[in-house]
# Entry
Amino acid sequence: MKPILFKSKLLEIKEINPETKILKFSIPEGFNFTAGQYVIIAFYKEGKRILRSYSIFSAPSEIRFIETYFKIIKGGYSSNYLFNMKIGEEIEMKGPLGIFTIKESTIHKDILMISSGTGFAPFMSIVKDLIGRRFKNRMILIRGFRKEEDLCCEEELKKLSEENKNFEYYNILSQPENGNHRLIGHAQDFLEKLTPKDFKGDFYICGLKDMVFETREKLLSSGISPERIHFERYD
Ligand SMILES: Cc1cc2nc3c(=O)[nH]c(=O)nc-3n(C[C@H](O)[C@H](O)[C@H](O)COP(=O)(O)OP(=O)(O)OC[C@H]3O[C@@H](n4cnc5c(N)ncnc54)[C@H](O)[C@@H]3O)c2cc1C
# Structure
C-alpha cells in the first residue's frame, strides 16, 4: 500500500533487557505492509521535528498492530523517547516504506539473512511471514549480538526452527558471559562457515553500515553477484 500518515497509540511494552524493548502500536483500519518494510516516527525536540525509521518487527498477518524492536542509543533523542513512552500515549507515524522485502520474483529461492543487533527486526517479520505462507525453500538466519541478554525471541525462533525443517538460525555473540556459548565473534565472521557450499539463494543483510559493508564485501569477493545481495542500513 502507499504510505500514509497516522497517529498510533502504544498498546503494549515488552522489555527484552534494560536497553532494549519491543513496543506494540495500534494501526489505522486498512493499514497493511510487506514483511521487511519500516515506518517513520516523528519526534519533537524543542519545537524541532526529528524523523527516525523503525523496521516493522511483527508479521503482516498480525493485522491489528505493528511492533518495533529497538535499543536505546546513548544520547539519542528518539530511541530514549520511545523507551520512556507509556501505554496509551500517541505518536505520529508514516508508512509503510521500504523495499527490503522478499520479492515475489525470488520467492522460489533459498534465503540467507544476516543481522547485527536490532538489525534482526525485519527478519523476524520476514521469517514469520514466509513460514505463515508455507515457504518451502531453505531459510538461514545468522544474528549477531553482544551478550546472552540481547537474545530476543529465542523461544519463538527455537519453536519455529523445530517445527519447520527448512528454517535454521544461529546466534553469534561478541561478548558472551556464559562460557558455554560456542559461536563467538561478529555475525559476518561466520558467513563463510554457515553458508551451505551449494547455496544458490539470495543474501539479506541488516544492521549498522560497517557490518553491512563488511558483509557485502565478503560476499562480493567470494564471487556472489550483486543482484543476489540485498541490504538495509540503519545508519
Ligand atoms: C530503514 C531503517 C530502519 C531502522 N530500523 C530500526 C529498528 O528496527 N530498530 C532500531 O533500534 N533502530 C532502527 N533504525 C535506526 C533508527 O532510525 C535510529 O537511528 C536509532 O533509533 C537512533 O536514533 P536516536 O535519535 O535515538 O539517535 P541518533 O542521535 O539519531 O543516533 C546516534 C547514532 O547511533 C547509531 N545508531 C543508529 N541506530 C542504531 C542501532 N539500531 N543500534 C546501534 N546504534 C545505532 C548511529 O551511528 C547514529 O549515528 C533504523 C534506521 C533505518 C534507516
In short: The chain has five helices and eleven strands. The radius of gyration is 18 Å. Residues 38, 52-55, 68-71, 73, 76-79, 98, 117-118, 121, 208, 232, 234-235 surround flavin-adenine dinucleotide (CB under 6 Å).
